[in-house]
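Ops channel
N.P.: pipeline sanity check, posting one input/output pair.
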């Protein structure tokens, strides 16, 4: 009989020897890159780091000049923007001011009793010239000749002077220019065309409260040098003031006083028709 040979045993690994390790340090090779891509990448890198030719090398002075020039141009642009903003602000301010002035002019209310007076141009001067003298005053549209026989009684101190009848015309110019005035005022403090007494057709309220029209006397100072006085109170120039019976009028520094009365006033005799 044949002897059976024992099976071969595997050699036991020494427990003290470490197991064989795989080599993990091997670098995986990158995927192949086409020569076209590599050339494109290198081209991009070269373009991103491109430097102007004149600044290459040691041309530092040229670079400094370029930076200074660019800074100056930026400063000029900022200054131009500021100037443009200022001009725009001025234009808006002028426009706003013009709008406000126009609004004030349109919204201005005419004062009751204000004169219908406008400064004369050449045509108005020719129309308002009398005996070579330009009249400073133009009668308003409501000027009327009164039916009441109004009179001025002048006094120089206690001396009564000649009575003046002022019911024949619608207006009477007072001043030192005898060529054109209706009532002379020869005192040196009086102006050549000092004041005017004007009869006007205005609204009137009766005692019972009803409304009607009536011709009443008014007085206006024509911007005289020393002013006009109504009952010893200086009046404003270029404004109508209603006159009433027994009012006292004075012009400049003259001592003459004019008392306003009419034919129905107490103590007045109707000696003039």
């Amino acid at each position: 009989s044949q002897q059976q040979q024992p099976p071969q045993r595997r050699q036991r690994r020494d427990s003290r020897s470490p197991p064989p390790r795989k080599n993990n340090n091997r670098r995986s090779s990158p995927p192949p890159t086409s020569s076209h891509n590599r050339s494109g990448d290198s081209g991009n890198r070269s373009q991103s780091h491109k430097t102007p030719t004149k600044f290459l090398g040691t041309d530092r002075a040229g670079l400094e000049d370029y930076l200074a020039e660019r800074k100056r141009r930026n400063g000029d642009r900022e200054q131009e923007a500021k100037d443009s903003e200022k001009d725009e602000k001025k234009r808006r301010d002028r426009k706003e001011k013009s709008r406000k002035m126009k609004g004030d002019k349109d919204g201005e209310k005419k004062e009751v009793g204000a004169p219908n007076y406008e400064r004369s141009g050449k045509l108005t001067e020719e129309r308002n010239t009398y005996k070579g003298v330009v009249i400073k005053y133009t009668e308003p549209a409501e000027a009327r000749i009164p039916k009441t026989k109004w009179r001025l009684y002048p006094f120089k101190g206690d001396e009564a002077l000649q009575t003046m009848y002022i019911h024949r015309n619608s207006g009477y110019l007072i001043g030192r220019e005898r060529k054109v005035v209706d009532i002379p005022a020869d005192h040196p403090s009086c102006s050549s065309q000092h004041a005017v007494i004007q009869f006007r057709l205005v609204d009137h309220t009766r005692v019972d409260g009803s409304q009607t029209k009536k011709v009443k006397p008014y007085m206006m100072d024509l911007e005289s040098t020393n002013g006009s006085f109504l009952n010893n109170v200086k009046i404003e120039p270029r404004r109508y003031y209603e006159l009433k019976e027994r009012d006292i009028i004075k012009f400049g520094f003259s001592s003459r006083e004019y008392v306003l009365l009419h034919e129905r006033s107490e103590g007045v005799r109707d000696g003039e028709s």
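N.P.: looks fine end to end. The CA atoms of residues 74 and 80 lie 10 Å apart.
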